[in-house]
Amino acid sequence: MDQFSVAGQRVVVMGAARSGVAAALLLVERGAHVTLTDLRPNLSDARDVNRLLHRGVELELGGHRPQTLVEASLIVLSPGVPLSQPALAMAQRAAVPIVGELELASRWLRGRIIAITGTKGKSTTATLTGRMLDASGMQTVVGGNIGVPLSAQVATSAPDTIHVVEVSSFQLETIRTFHPWIAVLLNFSPDHLDRHASVEEYASAKARIFENQDERDWVVINADDPDALALARGARGRRFQFSANPSVQEGVVVLSGAVAYRHAGRDEPLVPLSAVKLIGRHLLADVAAAAAVAKLSGVSSAGMTRAVESFRGLEHVMELVAEVRGVRFVNDSKATNVGSALRAIESFGDALVVILGGRYKGGDFGHLREPLASRNAKVIAIGEARPLLRAALEPAVPVTEAESLADAVRQAFDRARPHGAVLLAPACSSFDMFVDYEERGRAFKREVAELEKRVTREQ
To answer: 10-96 belongs to which homologous superfamily?
Structure first.
């Protein structure tokens, strides 16, 4: 949308994480006078500071000043900044336009957009979709909520570029014209209730992925998820379903030996299940979703299979860390909500020990009680959510508390021996103990490595 212009305008970007930095640099390139504000008194990356200052971006750190916002022609929000941020109140009363970074960047893209959202599985599906398209020779960029921010993709966007974009509810709540060619809703369950006022508000944000589509676009939806199907009910795009079961009559399904395209009563194999290297049957739904998008995009079965064969999953997503004296350790630190933790737990049998906890962000831990109890699983609880986990799970599931992740790893190893599994699937955010889920996952892997060294010395 080249007609959208910020030349000569005063634009304020709120939030100086990677998306905010990318938005500020893009706005400068487009001729705006840019102020980047952040609550932090200092930015952690000196390279970002140097780039921003070199390009003429004014930094306003240590808080968002209402007067700066009121005087802006446009305010751009990073995903981490909610519309309820108190400093925005005066600007909203003054009718200053407010958009998110996703919306801003999408107005200048020249290529088509494949947008992927859902409560869980977004990163895996977006990454695998990008690999499938790339394996077929398409000009593909993966980013958004993962990888490269959309603002950093504008400069190289061409008419034949396909932007595979992971989008969160935080990004979708500030869109206006964001228009995906293919919009994917993987699933839906309560999450982010520390940010959204209610489950309904969260659902409404997710459903906005379909808002600007028309009859020429595609809606890819999980046939196994009634809530997701309900959110897509009003979408105007053409519907294309996927399922982790052979239950749908039209779309991409998972059969006993392959992910297949079912059409007009016939099954066309797309990817043999032998090519899938991921831990957990629930991740087959992500493979099916990626295959559905690839099918709509014209990717061959051979291209899909090459991408799947070389894909070992993402770090912190059902990542096999090590096996220590017969005990497997699996890092699913990205399982920051109850639904994701549930799917991870269901991937294991008996002799399972699960490390749960962190900062509670909504959801019902009680949904984990039966799956844990049916596997005779044990729980090591960490972080602020320890009393909530104990109240929700005991006495059906034994819960032991740990003061640190190191303590949790040691306790879990003792309880999983001799041939069990230890799963980190916190069902909580990490912010009480770590910067983010990635730091938590890396810490888990370090503690497992230390445990392995100690056990080796004792042999």
So the answer is: NAD(P)-binding Rossmann-like Domain (3.40.50.720)
